[in-house]
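Q&A log
Question type: sequence-to-structure
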Amino acid sequence: MELAQRACLHALRSLHVDGVAVVVGGGIDSLWSVVESTGSGVRAIDEAQFDQGVGPVVDALSRGGVHSATDLEGPGPYGTFLAHSANSASIRAVFAIGISLPTENPAALQLSRFAPGQLEDETLVSQYARTVALAIADDIERTLRDRTSARHWIERFVPTENT
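Response status: OK
Response body:
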């Protein structure tokens, strides 16, 4: 199991959320990919944000920082666009935190919850975002150093030489 995947699973348990994903941009605001996730719910709400072009992930990738939709069924800039998809996936809250990678691609840590409301501890969330970024950097370094192939996700973003 790669370090980034382990960091996501640990964040899932420690941050009291129901889904965690790492999203990496493709250099164009409307293009990104989920490269690690803890389940289908977080992937479904990510796809809705991609399809609609609006949501916390869109904002985190384009501007960095922390962006949240604390109640997708309530009033707010995201709920109007994402309410149907959120209902289908049983997601009520989505958060995205911009993270820095040792690549030129923008990235975000996406968190989702089945219940509406704020995150319990935003400082802890920021610490996990940094931890996930470091785990991804370690994955990148390992891929480049060992010239590994197979299913390693970072190969989509960092070219490696074939041996």
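Response note: Residues 7 and 131 are 7 Å apart (CA to CA).
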